[in-house]
Amino acid sequence: MSGNMNLTLKVWRQKNDKTRGKFITYQANNISPDMSFLEMLDVVNEELVRKGEDPIHFDHDCREGICGMCSLHINGRPHGPKQGTTTCQLHMRSFHDGQTIVIEPWRAAAFPVIKDLAVDRSAFDRIQQAGGYINVNTGGVPDANSIPIPKVIADEAFESATCISCGACVAACKNASAMLFVSAKISQYALLPQGQTERYSRAQAMVAQMDAEGFGSCTNTGACEAECPVGIKLTNIARMNREYLTAKLFKEEEPH
Amino acid sequence: MLDSKVPAGPLAEKWSKHKFNLKLVNPANKRKYTIIVVGTGLAGSSAAASLAELGYNVKAFCYQDSPRRAHSIAAQGGINAAKNYQNDGDSVYRLFYDTIKGGDYRAREANVYRLAEVSVNIIDQCVAQGVPFAREYGGLLDNRSFGGAQVSRTFYARGQTGQQLLLGAYSALNRQINKGKVTMYNRHEMLDLVTIDGHARGIITRNMVTGAIESHEGHAVLLCTGGYGNVFFLSTNAMGCNVTAAWRAHKRGAFFGNPCYTQIHPTCIPVTGDHQSKLTLMSESLRNDGRVWVPKTVELAQKLRKGEIKISDIKEADRDYYLERKYPSFGNLVPRDVASRNAKEVVDEGRGVGASGIAVFLDFEDAIKRLGEDTVRAKYGNLFDMYYQITDENPYKQPMRIYPAVHYTMGGLWVDYNLMTTVPGLYALGECNFSDHGANRLGASALMQGLADGYFVIPYTVGDYLAGLGFDPVDKNHPNFEKTRKEVEDNVRKLLSLKGSKTVDDIHKKLGHIMWEYCGMARNEVGLTKAKGLIQELRKEFWSDVTVLGENEEMNQSLEKAGRVADFLELGELMVDDALNRRESCGGHFREESQTEEGEAKRDDKNFRYVAAWEYKGENQPEVLHKEPLEFENVKLTQRSYK
User: Exposed/middle/buried for A245, CB within 10 Å: 0-12, 13-18, 19+?
Assistant: First the structure.
């Protein structure tokens, strides 16, 4: 087909977290601009399998930009060259014929490589488990409309709540800091009336877990915001710092 | 005999009475029981969290790297609840009625009524968890309308409702993980069910990082593993969605209900080529403001496809807004099955649009004129962006092109009123079961059902079973654990020994073509019979000529895919058998032999007013059909009309 491209891929291959990895070069030929980036990798993998070679392993699932499972550092940028998009929603029309594309996993000590381009992001789950919730049991809650929430507040909480937990913020940060991710959750609850009762213990517990996981510190560079596929704002970090400081200075209590 | 265990008494009192009659487990005794929950979407996460809150020990499993990534996350449009916040005539009864009618009278009345009844609690629960639903300026919750209903009862969080609801359930799950009441197993795939004396007592899983094949014991097993739309290869499901857990349970004695009931969603982004790996849905909520049309004549459509004319060259009078024309009272908001079939009809006539001609327009020009671009952006911004991203066409400037795609499976494991399958101690929740949507699911009802089952049904019904068990721990040294584990290992070894010339995707794509062609939007005797033979041949081809690389003791995506496709190849045949057996049209199941003069689905209530529940009888043996008659004591069966 006219308009199709031939590309050179340099892909990080690593058998597991015990072995050293290296870049291997592959050709991706006759790639349609309408393919998604992951569909391009599917094409390469089908060829590898036909040749009896182990396909390139990468995480992916919904391929709609919402599950947060796909990752990939593409030519030095998390989720590739296009702003505000996940790798699964990145299409090959963002590349040109003859281009060389370097594909790496997320690089962060807290995200060890499992195989090739797939990394272990369970640290994110553990941070959420430390306090990313409101303590309510099923049943016995008030009528939904008994808690009016100003639309601007609800909308702002929603903006923070849209984080897909992909880890691009960590991958983009020179310190591998997870502050954007953690602050999005803390902000969502700090903004909403339902989150008030535990807002300070929550901030302390989640930050403590974040530190325990080995993520780096924030130096306000803003790379995380620039690379976030869903537009989580840096102001969340400012809010988290305020929540955390207030908690530490005035509201210190045992994290539950 | 199938016993649905639907309690006696008036419809509106059944659930209350039943809850009272169910046995309870004393709070101090709950910690003596372990419950296995497979899948962490809305049904699984909500069930795992709620059961742990009650005091049970829960082991939860998901194949993704985090429970938050289950495919419920991708649900866009909203969740129904009979709150009647809009004062527009809604009620529990109306939601019940709309759902029964929408399902074309092939669902159980009692289950559907209970679903409508608990729908109101779901919204309360989610708000208490901090789910940021859309709100009015006064601070109260906003609603919108959805297909198959004439009231506004759909709660939403922009076009990301599934994400926000799942994150709510995930937060409740995290809280219980933190408390030590839930043990979470990420990147684990269930590969078989362990039964002892006919009761479900555990599962066999594969650790997808290390390859370890492990046994897990529990007093009850809950399958919350979603639907099987990926049997079609192309669907709106996530890449990893599969039938394996449900299918293995089926082979261990759980009957499969109505496997042929598939929902083909009308508004998806059309296929662009052979490289396509999945299809993307555009939320049904778009039909609130978007108008569906194609050119009035084949000639105009041809010119448009060839690029001889532009869309704007087609005058208003030359546009056929076929849904508004044929169904004036519901217009663009007809149920999904009706909208899909009509799209297929106009495309088959040669009036389709886009380069392939396999698409129709969904046009927002009027909505933008009426509401302004900003309002449209506020309502649907993320969906428009997604469309733009994928197609490189700006939907604010030109109509979207859409076409139906496989989206949801109403069929699933047969369950009784308690959500228990035909294997005692084995439950199925959410899309995994067959129970609430009949032959067609209405929009915004899947989220409702998943959360209803997990938050408000299973916490009551599972206790009734456990209370009859005694307190003995499950014997993990029982030989059935070792036996089943060995069978799983043998199967893995067998798959890894396959070194043919085809890839697993080659076979999966072929299966998808067969299913779409013969068991898709329209089905007939000849096609289905042909499909059955083709699937049998394809299964042979898989086991003789496919190649599976790598070894078990590592992350191995070839092996994962192969196991799933092997099960789809068996399920596909059962779907065809079920479609062959049901010689009537109902909802998403359209048998060309059975239609009204106007081309609508024509039911045969005399002969097919039943749930088809299939019993597995062994390798390459025909499955045995059991029938659960559907009794309608409250609604009158009529030919569905949305005119």
Answer: exposed
If we measure between CA atoms, which residue out of B410, B348, B381, B404 comes closest to residue B102? B410
Please say whether the beta carbons of A79 and A90 come within 8 A.
Answer: yes
- Whether the full predicted model's pTM is greater than 0.80, yes or no, is yes
Residues constituting chain B: 643
Q: In the A/B pair of chains, how many CB contacts fall below 8 A?
A: 217
> What distances in angstroms separate CA B227 from CA B116, B207, B428, B430, B568, one per listed residue?
22, 22, 11, 9, 12
* Chain length of chain A: 256
| A89 to chain B, closest Cα gap in Å | 7
Interface residue A89 vs chain B (CB under 8 A): yes
Looking at residue B311, which CATH number applies to its domain?
3.90.700.10
The distance of Cα B325 from the centroid of its chain, to the nearest Å, equals 30
Catalytic residue check, B31:
no
Q: Which of the following is catalytic: B336, B591, B609, B640?
A: B336
- Between CA B208 and CA A57 the distance in angstroms is 12
Nearest Cα residue in chain A from B500? A50
* CATH superfamily ID and name for A121-250: Alpha-helical ferredoxin (1.10.1060.10)
User: Which among B128, B239, B280 has the least Cβ separation from residue A60?
Assistant: B239
User: pLDDT (tens digit, 9 = 90+) per residue, B407-456?
Assistant: 999 999 999 999 999 999 999 999 999 999 999 999 999 999 999 999 99
Report the domain count for chain B: 2
Pair B273, B396 in one domain: yes
**Complex ipTM > 0.90:** yes
Tokens of B402: 């859409």
